[in-house]
Amino acid sequence: MRRSAFGAVLVLTAFALGGLTACSSTDPGPDAGPGGAAAPTKSTPTAPVRVEDGFMPDLVGGSVMSAYGQLSGSMRFEDVSGQGRIVPTDSGAAEEWKVCTQTPAAGAAISAGQEMVIGAVKKAEDC
Hints:
The chain is α+β, with helices and mostly antiparallel strands.
């Protein structure tokens, strides 16, 4: 009797494991790229860096739009070309500006109420 109970357990276990592998799909799904390979995922964070996160991200070299989207809290954008222009933060025009400087520096601790100053110029200009 013991052998048949053990055999039944083995059969049920094998059946269950076989069912698990049968459930796996070879369909690459809707995110697949050409050739059925999975499309690469974006590594850019989608949520803004909040003051509560505690550290300033590295914004230099990116667009003003990207910087504006990564931050929340007290921030000021300045034209560092010396021309005194207003740096836009709306989606269309902000893409045409690049970040040259930032205060606090990348990696620096930031606290609630601390102002973040981002210096920028138009993309065709030198920092």
